[in-house]
Amino acid sequence: MITAVRKPFAEIAGMLEGSRKVLILGCGTCVTVCMAGGEKEVGILASTLRLANEKEGRRMDIVEATIERQCDREFFDTVRDKVAEADVVLSLACGVGVQFFGEVFPEKPVLPGLDTKFYGAAIAQGVWAERCSGCGTCVIADFGGVCPVTRCSKSLLNGPCGGSQKGKCEVDPVNIDCGWQLIYDRLKALGQLAKLEAVRPIKDWSSGSHGGPGKIVKEDAVL
Amino acid sequence: MSTLTMDGLKSGSRLERVLAEGHFAVTAELGPPKSADTAPIGVKAAHLSGNVDAVNITDNQTAIVRMSSIAAGLLALKEGIEPIIQITCRDRNRIAIQSDVLGAYALGIRNILCLTGDHQKFGNHPTSKNVFDMDSIQLIGMLACMRDQKRFACGEEIRNSKKAPVVEPRILIGGAENPFGDPLEFRAIRLAKKVEAGVDFIQTQCIYDMERFAEFMRQVRARGLHEKVKILAGLTPLKSVGMAKYMRDSVAGLSVPDSYIERMDKAADKPAEGIRICVEQIEALREIEGVAGVHIMAIEWEEKVAEIVKAAGLLPRPEPAAGPEVRT
Hints:
Strand order of the largest sheet of chain B: 1-2-3-4-5-6-7-8
Radius of gyration of chain B: 19 Å
Oligomer: heterodimer
Number of helices of chain A: 7
Helix content of chain B: 25-40%
CATH class of the largest domain in chain A: Alpha Beta
Radius of gyration of chain A: 22 Å
Largest sheet of chain A: 4 strands, parallel
Number of strands of chain A: 9
CATH class of chain B: Alpha Beta
């Protein structure tokens, strides 16, 4: 999923300074699962804002809503009225959802309530970790199912650097496993260590974000 | 422009000729200044000139901004030092690196050491974006392609136009290896990959644990790698007990045996003891099959390199047969 965390409250309050009618719009998919921008988080943020406004004597109407996804046009239909009534919309979607809101409602100011982080998995209750960089050309078949582009702090494709120590990455030995130790261990367990002997050529990065903003056209799905 | 007569050499650099003639090579390190003041280069070069065969010019090591390695290398060259320019993959992509290699060669640089590069987190601009368009093995392969295939990474020939001559950068290609990094079983495989990519010489991370290094060299010989690449063992003389403990505790991939720490602890003259240990290490390394030389990284202690090299019986440095005419 796409993971995100809520922006600090002071930053959100600062962005909303002077707004009279605010719609806080949650997203029911990835950011709900990672507990950053779903219905529950919309409610918590709205309550916190109301309390702060009351305390500081600010007048602000706060409306709450959450839709299934902010990256698909059809789901916005249910909140058109609320959007129309708001001065500004604070989207608790990922960066995709915030921008797409702006494409669906070009006349309406929209603000991001989250900081979007990465494509990750829930490795434990309440803990999410990055697993994919969206490089556009998946190479993990050759690396025992572990992505060197994402899991190595330097995206090395031909083996670990000198900073791999006791299975940890020197960039943050407490929180980051050495991606290459993971690759090595996995291939060893699979009896495929020979895969590491081949020199891998320089990667074509143009298939990912380095080729400019990407677009996928699936011909059989286009109307 | 005259043609380069290669005499079977790849670059004709002094380092290459010393190694080709079978001498036990000695290299050292020179960190460029952290300002535009060139004076430190002259001071450090004066300590090293004539006492070593070539000197690494580091490339923003530990991700701290310093004078460019090519510029500092050229200044060192004028001071009578043969530079080994270090290039890391952290700050430049394939376009910038190939451009710099052409420029460095045009200015008289003949040795380049290819490194991954320390992560920017450790330097003085930790909020910067890194590049890592390629890794050090791919960098070695790219330089070998430029020199031997006379082509850029994209496949285009290295010439100004279809009618112009091909003028490729003829560089001796170096790499680094940390024999002590994890996973340990992967280190010799990684060295083999560097050899396959086209590396000519290797300098290792500084060694204190001689037994573990000897084990690494056994793995290297088992693969026959010592016959395909010149391996220079890295050494950093200890100045103090504090430094020994720092190396042991804080540098990833380094282990310092307790015996060295005890010796440093007991010694009255600690720097002298550190130098004695370093000289003993050189003597032991010369006995290990496949070690072609030493790389002495005397960090901000360049003035002691001559003393170490002399005590190890490695002075005067050999005068290898003259290299090819450098084209003008």
